[in-house]
Amino acid sequence: MPTKNHSYAELLELNSWIRKCSDTFFWLCTTRTVQESKLFPVNPYIALSYLNAWYRYPQLLRKLEEHMSAEDIGDRAREVTTYANAIANGIIPQFYLGGRQILIDMGMISPTDALDDVAYVLDFSRRLNLSYHRNHAHILASDANQRMQLLPERVVQVFEADAFPVKPGDRLHTAVVKFLAQISQYAFLSHAECRLGIHNSGPYMVGENSEMLVRDFVDLAEGDLPWLDGVASAVSYNNLTIPVILKDTHFHIVDDWASFEATPAYDHANMAAVGVYTSDYLSGGYLPVAMDSPDTLAEFLENEREVLRKATSDLWKVMATWSRDQLIDAGLLVYYNVPKDLFHIAGIYEQEDWFTVEERAQRFKPLMNDEYGRDLIAELVGYISLSSQQGNEYVMSKYSMARGDMWSTIPYSVLSDDEFTTSVGQIRGGSTSLPAKAGLYTTTKGKLTQEQANAEAKKLDCLVFEDKYRFLDDEWMKLHPNDPRAQELYLYSQRNSRTLKGKGASLLRGDFISPEDK
User: Fold this and answer.
1) What pTM was computed for the model?
2) 277-286: per-residue pLDDT in tens?
3) C-alpha–C-alpha distance, residues 290 and 282, integer Å
4) Which of 13, 41, 315, 341 is the right S-S partner for 83, CB 3.0 to 4.6 Å?
5) How far apart are CA 14 and CA 22, in angstroms?
6) Which phi and psi angles does 68 have, rounded to 5°?
7) CB of 42 within 8 A of CB of 193?
8) 408 lies in the same domain as 498
9) How many domains does the chain contain in total?
């Protein structure tokens, strides 16, 4: 019996999005090093995270849109640094489709199964990414020639104007270099030795020979990750944003996993200016951190580096006691919970939704020894060699030239007489081998309980999210620089700026940059 819930036009759009996702994911996976770790069973936890996503995302995302639309959430996420960034938003459909493909290849489901679920998750993720990437009017960085200019001018102006000049050997330059090394190590370990705690966006042109890369580090303090309770109690901020301006450097890749490549290669010796900010789902924008002077910023970075060094050491000691099952659960949950901050933004976050493994996903754990997990992920996202991925003998996929594609599309036969099912059903019970979350959540409003954080998110009153201002993008700004609403938006973004506070719209770089720095 044909489906009455979906049209031909809708399936054409959905299959186009599936193919874009599979092409993009293949390029990203094959331009990376091997997914392995000496501590974590990475490939088993990746495969299990995909399965957990398959069983849980449909119901959770539907619940989310009962409170806030994907477009509203994308707009809010774009204004701050959270886990709801380009990496996480972009891989929501990838992880979900990964679970689907594994089950298709095992013969447990058909490409026509869970039709309504698949259509909904894909549509949600497409709308979310369109909204989040609104400022550069692409859905993914790969569509913008591997570039992510996420932020509006009013924010980037503040980042540039307030950045402190640095030179190799001075106190601030030295502090930044050492801090970036330490925070990268810590964020990598805290996220089960994956890169989901590290984000980069840009580049933004800064004069003729310089570019700005916006570097983000998320989930640093006591918060969602239960294994940071106690370990990260002294970490000052949950999220940090570090705009870095490099001279004589062109970033020719800032991709969908927020990795970057530059010509010449990224070199701290070319760092010309830097700033530090924090933000989250409660801040309504970026808040400067120790930006009173170069010395106050250097002092903060020096002290916080020591805090992170100790937290890294303490976290190693915690993880060294974990069983293999706990190591798998930690990595599985870090991967699976990439949508979690969307729920923080909407004020409906529930820890149990994101840090337990669905009983249907748990069934696959006995299969996932290191060898099986390695070979499954290699065939699934690297070689594209699973039988379910193969097309006919004339097929050449976009990047791999393989006979098939990573993710199976939805057969159009569901519109005529093919059999299909609509859903995987309700979420079943979940469990984890890890200790439960016990501490508070670090936010820009202080350390809060889950209930307090949700309440604060629901009552957030932020000018840029109001209907009067929400749709006033940079295209509108250039045509209405003297409109009172333009002034109000710029004044809002400048409210904490050391140099631009009160300056309003109509600023050009020459109004706040000295001639020798242009």
Assistant:
1) 0.96
2) 999 999 999 9
3) 20
4) 341
5) 12
6) -155, 135
7) yes
8) no
9) 2
